[in-house]
Design brief:
Elements lengths: L12 H4 E4 L2 E5 L10 E4 L2 H9 L7 H16 L5 H16 L6 H15 L8 H27 L6 E6 L5 H12 L3 E7 L6 H12 L3 E5 L4 H7 L4 E4 L3 E2 L5 E4 L2 H10 L4 E4 L24 E2 L2 E2 L12 E4 L6 E4 L2 E3 L4 H8 L9
Parallel strand pairs: 4-5, 4-7, 5-6, 7-10, 10-14
Antiparallel strand pairs: 1-2, 2-3, 8-9, 9-13, 11-12, 14-15
Length: 352
């Protein structure tokens, strides 16, 4: 794809999720970059299960969801009219609810696919039409996040260190691309993000692929690193940017924001605000299998009977957020109504 050629391997469309000939192939991020393997889904329910099992995560599920809808179109190729549409509606709801915290955004993806489908229900190439829509929407999202990166550059120093949290997917690649085009000398430090190690395996891999200076630290080194080495700012993407300025992101974001507030270090969240989410009270925080917190890479680290606890996300309150970097500029966390007024109609994903 032309729109992703200069990005890191795992940000390229065919390596995120891709539908072809009745199969959705998803890069298995549970083992990347140690091994490069793909999960092959031949039923849309398997796409839902792959998202739920963290085969792909961050923004990956949005592409996977659309490709899963293309697969559902292939599976229903012998149906027509209302019967086929009913099959696709069921698939849309199943895929959208793969993970509760991002269900609203996922539903925007699957409903966009339904809009494509409704006028082509009796056509043999409906699966390819939906795949084309998925790729077009992915390009629009990449273009939108590229604008976020360009606005972000206005607050990034000419020289310094940026700390990240988890894996911001698209913004990581777009920001690296903008920095490479500039004269700025920027280093990155990535907490590992246990238990799935997205910071170490994904964020650091993308930065390395794109020629950035990147260091990985364990999650309990954040304060020590800031005290001993110093950072210029902290940033994260968000699984949901609420209109009250609350940031829902990978668990651990809140505690890093607290540390940065103590050291008077700015925290910028990046992404597209969810204009239909008034506050964090409207977000369901996913509680994952507590056993996942007791192991890493399939190796258990505790005795039998030791209990685990694993909320996938936490909520950073707006008073700890210096600014929200969006596609139309940087806004104070308490002023996202200004974003809504300037943005007008629109949402996270993109309609037909």
């Amino acid at each position: 794809m032309e729109f992703d050629q200069d990005l890191a391997y795992m940000l390229q469309a065919k390596h995120v999720a891709y539908y072809e000939d009745g199969v959705v192939s998803i890069l298995d991020r549970r083992i990347y970059p140690v091994r490069v393997e793909y999960v092959r889904c031949r039923h849309y329910v398997e796409v839902r299960d792959a998202v739920r099992a963290m085969v792909t995560q961050s923004a990956g599920p949005y592409t996977a969801a659309a490709m899963g809808m293309a697969l559902a179109a292939y599976e229903s190729r012998d149906l027509g009219g209302e019967e086929r549409f009913a099959f696709l509606k069921e698939a849309a709801e199943v895929i959208a609810n793969a993970r509760p915290t991002t269900a609203n955004r996922m539903r925007q993806v699957t409903e966009g696919c339904l809009e494509v489908a409704k006028d082509h229900l009796d056509e043999d190439d409906l699966d390819l039409r939906i795949r084309d829509y998925a790729l077009s929407s992915m390009k629009q999202r990449y273009d939108s996040i590229d604008r976020v990166a360009k606005h972000f550059m206005s607050v990034i120093p000419d020289e310094g260190t940026i700390m990240t949290q988890c894996f911001g997917e698209t913004i990581i690649g777009m920001l690296a691309r903008e920095i490479k085009k500039s004269d700025k000398n920027i280093r990155f430090v990535c907490p590992e993000t246990r238990p799935f190690l997205q910071g170490a395996r994904f964020t650091a891999s993308v930065f390395k692929d794109m020629g950035m200076d990147v260091t990985v630290i364990t999650d309990n080194m954040v304060t020590a690193y800031i005290e001993n080495e110093g950072i210029s700012l902290f940033t994260s993407a968000a699984d949901s940017i609420c209109m009250d300025g609350s940031i829902v992101n990978k668990v651990g974001t809140h505690q890093i924001a607290i540390v940065c507030d103590h050291f008077d270090i700015p925290y910028y969240a990046t992404g597209i605000p969810d204009m239909d989410v008034a506050s964090a009270k409207d977000v369901t925080i996913e509680m994952r299998d507590p056993e996942e917190s007791l192991s890493a890479h399939g190796i258990k680290h505790t005795l039998e009977g030791v209990k685990g606890y694993y909320p996938a996300f936490d909520i950073t309150p707006p008073e700890l957020v210096t600014g929200v970097v969006t596609d139309i500029g940087i806004f104070e966390s308490h002023a996202l109504d200004d974003y809504k007024e300037k943005k007008g109609d629109g949402d996270f994903y993109f309609a037909v």
